[in-house]
Amino acid sequence: xxxxxxxxxxxASNDIVATHPVVRVASLDAVAAALAxxxxxxxxxDFMVLRGGMRAALVTGPDGHRFLVExxxxxxxx
Length: 78
Prior knowledge:
This protein is of the alpha+beta class. It has a domain at 22-71. The protein has 1 helix and 4 strands. It has one helix at 28-37; strands spanning 22-25, 47-49, 55-60, 66-71. It has a 4-stranded mixed beta sheet with strand order 1-4-3-2, with no helix packed on it. Strand 2 and strand 3 (55-60) form a beta hairpin. The two termini are 29 Å apart. The relative contact order is 0.22.
């Protein structure tokens, strides 16, 4: 992962850029269950494990744009 930079101000909605919105949640399973109840179930190919073991899924919003949902890593006391 390189340094984070802001999206250029002249970026249009049809430009291809390497950006995507990210939402962090406490439980990816709960989000998947809620989406399934709304008739928008996630497919197996939507789920992934990111570097460091973080679970995530690509979700398509009502406007057709996809965003990443990341499950917060739980810190348990040792």
